[in-house]
Task: structure prediction
Amino acid sequence: MKLRAAVLFVLAARVFSGAENIKGNAFGNPAAPIMIEVFSDFQCPACKLLHDTEIPRLMKEYVIPGKAYLIYRYFPLDMHPYGRKAAEVVAAAAQLGKYEQAADAAFAKQQEWGATGKIEETVDNVLTAGEQQKLRALMQAPAVQQAIAHDVSEGYAVPVTGTPTLLVTYRLKRYPIGGREVLKYEWVKAMLDDLLSK
Amino acid sequence: MTYSQNRVLRITTVVLRVLVGGVFLAAAYAKLKDPWALFAMSIDSYGILPLRWVEFAARTLPWFEAVLGVVLIAGIFKRIATGTGTLLMLVFIGAMAWAKLHGKQIDCGCFGPGEAIGIWSILRDGSIGAALLFITVMSFWQPGKKKAAGAAVDTERAYSV
Result:
């Protein structure tokens, strides 16, 4: 019994260990029965597709009604030259309370800054002049670097085999989906409904 | 073929049948313990079946594997079970080879999610398929039984004379 309690405690600690690193990149009720972590790279085309098409449906059908708690995780891939920089810019914007706007802008103009690397200029469009100044300083701030490092190490621990990957946690059981598999909303919905019906 | 050779063949067949049955049970359990949609994603990633068939396969295939595993271990309906298993493995290997040839970097889905298609997974399934083919051939051939039956008739004749 003691062993079981200890295992549950360790699992719970592991599941919620990222809570202190979340700033602006989490949506919904933290007490929702399902937690969905989206491991995503701002320069990854499939992540843009997920962000533009599947995530709004997930938000509408599961996050807003309180069935799921959604967290975006920064998972820049080495194969994308500006993926890391984009994560720093968006994480810095998150510190200013502008995660959603910055992420939307980054994905919307992915092709443009993906060619030039000028992600700051892209995100500047959703910030005030004062916030733009702060963004540059915040990009290398420990809080931003730690948030990214935390998410990347979490991703490797899953393990995330590709982006985007959704990590669905229900009753302490974790189901990584995506990565190498095709992420279709039909299957994600079927899975979430299946879990919620148990 | 000598008596001892027949005996070795029969023992090998039984051992292989039980082992392959165990593999089918393990594969079924790995899929059934998770929501069926996870397996559906693996099947869908191959891009071979239309959506409605993907759902049907994801919901039924693990149960079919479980029944096949039990039947193989129990040693009942041997010819049908081993023949069906061989065909099933041919389908699996064919699908994996097709995905590999088309450059798809996807999960095999053999034992639930998390295992990419690679030489190892194709070789493993190929070995299981070869073992099943061997057991199928043995279930039809059974040289020892025929010989033993023939010998029994001969002995009977000898005594009756």
Remarks:
- The domain at 18-196 of chain A is CATH 3.40.30.10 (Glutaredoxin).
